[in-house]
Amino acid sequence: MDETQKKEQATTHKIGIYLWIWGLLFVLSFFSYLVDWFAFQGLLRWTLILIFMFLKAGLIMAFFMHLFWERYALVNVLLWPMTAIVGFFVLMAAEAKYTVFTRLLYFFIGG
Amino acid sequence: MSDNSLNNLPGGFKGMSHDMGSDQTAFKGVQWGKVMMWIFLLSDTFVFSCFLISYMKGRASTVVDWPNTSEVFSLHVGDVPVPLLLIAIMTFVLITSSGTMALAVKYGYEKNRKMCGWLILATAIGGLTFVGMQVFEWSKLIHEGVRPWENPFGAKQFGSFFFMITGFHGTHVSIGVIFLFIYARKVFRGDFDNGKRGFFTTMKSDYVAIEILGLYLHFVDLVWVFIFAFFYLW
Question: Are residues A65 and B215, on separate chains, in Cβ contact within 8 Å?
Fold first, then answer.
């Protein structure tokens, strides 16, 4: 092991950062539970759920999974394919709208 | 970690084009096993995404009301129903085990054998607790008449998505727990300190294996974040 790696490990593995992230994850999970506790509805509920979800996911990936310290070559290979998921989600959301439209049309109105 | 000149390489996006165009290993300074685990996790991400997107499609296209998850997953404390209580506890247990795993990786790299081993054991017990609570939740719902094809609460699709998504996730946690016990034993035995060769490989053991195991476990926690948000809270 050379000096570079020693220095890197010393900087990437301080205990404080893990404890901070750990604490934040607890707090964020508690907040997302509160969303249900207070029974927020509609747009407010969905926005809060998504915000807490993405914050938690980001913290876990960046610090617990060390992506924040990883080389960009790896980070980009991992994150860009996720855009395909967004694309698939958009396609299926449109498909769901069409399906529910046809169901309403044929089940209740009768074509 | 054969690359001794990592610090002399450019960083950021410039570093990325340098790494990718270097005609050698693309991911400088990243142990190959870690890259492989990441590629596996990427593929697993797609599997879970397909489940969650099909759930979205199923829920958005049904003309029957979706069951109110807040009530379906409530637990009675005394006589008071507390919404989503078990799911909240499961979430906290999984985050706890994720934290102990992160610390295990840290102590592993510091070659602190005892701390690393105990933290891996703590992680395994957290995972086991999680799976246990999931078993409780499944049997409770099955008793209440939830089946993959019908349920007393609302849209029929609910059951199939519930069992499929949480079942697949629970399987992942269970596999993780098995590996955690195996690796706890290896750590306590000192395999990673004296570079003992593994059962399936001729390569010497190294504490980077703990980080790779940790990646899998954090991923399982990551997936739960999305399941918790989309299936239980939405």
Answer: yes
Q: Is the pLDDT of residue A111 over 80?
A: no
- CATH code for residues B67-233: 1.20.120.80
B31, B1 contact by CB (below 8 A): yes
Identify the segments of chain B with pLDDT beneath 50: 1-3
Q: Could you say which of A19, A73, A107 has the minimum Cβ distance to residue B16?
A: A73
Res A12: pLDDT: 53
Beta carbons of B56 and A74 less than 8 Å apart:
no
Of B42, B211, B229, the CB nearest to A49: B229
Mean pLDDT taken over chain A: 86
| Partners of residue A105 in chain B, C-beta under 8 Å | none
Distance CA B188, CA A111 (A): 69
Provide the phi-psi class of B2: left if phi over 0, else alpha when psi is between -120 and 50, else beta. alpha
Q: Let me know the angle formed at the C-alpha of B180 by B177 and B185, rounded to the nearest 5 degrees.
A: 135
Set of chain A residues whose Cβ sits within 8 Å of the Cβ of B28? 71, 73
Q: Where are the domains of chain A?
A: 3-71, 81-111
What residue ranges do the domains of chain B occupy?
67-233
Question: Which pLDDT belongs to residue B202?
Answer: 75
